[in-house]
Amino acid sequence: MLSGTFISFEGPDGAGKTSALQAITAEIAPALGDRLTITREPGGNPISESIRSIILDRANTAMDYRTEALLYAAARRQHLAQTILPALAADKLVLCDRYVDSSVAYQGAGREIGEAAVAKMNEFATDGLLPELTIYFDVPAVVGLRRIQAHRDPTKVDRLDVEQTAFHDRVRAAYLKLQAAHPDRIKLIDATQDPATVVAQSLALIKQTAPAYF
């Protein structure tokens, strides 16, 4: 039995979801203590983090797009088995920076290898497990890329960050399509708002979805 609550954070590059997650963690961690698990994809444990380093290494320009999608799915499976499922079984609130929707948007649409094919691959990897809530931070591609250029450490810019605007436009369009198809699970927040508002709206959704923790 999985008695915990699983919530994912999604958005195009530069949407500010990771910063929002950090602010939310700082606010709720003191009260929740070890009932809270914060994790990320790809990554979340040593094996998945090793796969992450291969995927995002800017030197790996020869990586085939399907190889990339398979590596994300492999990292996700290990993350689920080693990190997420044990936390949910222990009745924890799990907040995850990216999950399946990222692969559908980035590899399926951004890389143009097929959203349905990537979704099917990840259904196998996850055994169909989806979050109770996905908070989607929406921002136009040009705004997100401008934020990356202005604020991100150049040494931390990865293979996906350096893609052309058309790639990121496809990613955003796929996210919006996913949100329209799954409105009960995926809730959209306008990430062009000031950070405090974005965090407040996100926290309200989290408390609404997982009231037992608050």
From TrEMBL:
<keyword id="KW-0067">ATP-binding</keyword>
<dbReference type="GO" id="GO:0005829">
    <property type="term" value="C:cytosol"/>
</dbReference>
<dbReference type="InterPro" id="IPR018095">
    <property type="entry name" value="Thymidylate_kin_CS"/>
</dbReference>
<dbReference type="GO" id="GO:0006227">
    <property type="term" value="P:dUDP biosynthetic process"/>
</dbReference>
<protein>
    <recommendedName>
        <fullName>Thymidylate kinase</fullName>
        <ecNumber>2.7.4.9</ecNumber>
    </recommendedName>
</protein>
<dbReference type="InterPro" id="IPR027417">
    <property type="entry name" value="P-loop_NTPase"/>
</dbReference>
<feature type="binding site">
    <location>
        <begin position="11"/>
        <end position="18"/>
    </location>
    <ligand>
        <name>ATP</name>
    </ligand>
</feature>
<feature type="domain" description="Thymidylate kinase-like">
    <location>
        <begin position="9"/>
        <end position="199"/>
    </location>
</feature>
<dbReference type="GO" id="GO:0005524">
    <property type="term" value="F:ATP binding"/>
</dbReference>
<keyword id="KW-0418">Kinase</keyword>
<dbReference type="InterPro" id="IPR039430">
    <property type="entry name" value="Thymidylate_kin-like_dom"/>
</dbReference>
<dbReference type="GO" id="GO:0006233">
    <property type="term" value="P:dTDP biosynthetic process"/>
</dbReference>
<dbReference type="Pfam" id="PF02223">
    <property type="entry name" value="Thymidylate_kin"/>
</dbReference>
<keyword id="KW-0808">Transferase</keyword>
<keyword id="KW-0547">Nucleotide-binding</keyword>
<comment type="function">
    <text>Phosphorylation of dTMP to form dTDP in both de novo and salvage pathways of dTTP synthesis.</text>
</comment>
<dbReference type="InterPro" id="IPR018094">
    <property type="entry name" value="Thymidylate_kinase"/>
</dbReference>
<dbReference type="GO" id="GO:0004798">
    <property type="term" value="F:dTMP kinase activity"/>
</dbReference>
<comment type="similarity">
    <text>Belongs to the thymidylate kinase family.</text>
</comment>
<dbReference type="GO" id="GO:0006235">
    <property type="term" value="P:dTTP biosynthetic process"/>
</dbReference>
<keyword id="KW-0545">Nucleotide biosynthesis</keyword>
